[in-house]
Amino acid sequence: MASKTFVVLALAFFAFNLQATLGEITCEHLDQDTCAYAVASTGKRCVLEKHIKRSGEEEYTCRTSEIEADKIRNWIETDQCVKACGIDRNSFGISSDSLLESRFTKMLCSPQCYNGCPNIIDLYFNLAAGEGVFLPKLCEARQGNVRRGMSEIRSSGLVAPGPVGGVKFMGVAPAMPPY
């Protein structure tokens, strides 16, 4: 147990030092291999976009989104966290549907991801909250009866109904992630 804690702390220290040596992160300066799951120095999340040129060739660009990360700035996600959390660095967006996939939630809720990858947990915590799901409860259900936990989510046991009309931002801060 102590050795796992040491490894997590060593990885966090390495990631912090890596971020410090990179200086300020601007999404538009990141390449395809570092864009997804990165957070600019402004606190805005980076998003990978794919464009098709007239020639049919695919072109990838990194842009700054309007989504802000909670308490995380100047961050490029580590390969260790990408692997531990079961995410794809070449993703073009995320969906709450992934929270219903057993394999994905198993990796997201694993101690390596949940306790060692605060950026990814922050992102999925807020995504789940937007669907009315409290990520710690989802992970707790995941550890117990997987099918029951998933069925509770699908049956609105943990999910709030979607909006009927347009959604207005009322300036209410989302719940804080559990780290």
From TrEMBL:
InterPro entries: PAR1 (IPR009489). Pfam families: PAR1. Keywords: Signal. Residues 1-23 form the signal peptide. This is PAR1 protein. It comes from Hibiscus trionum.
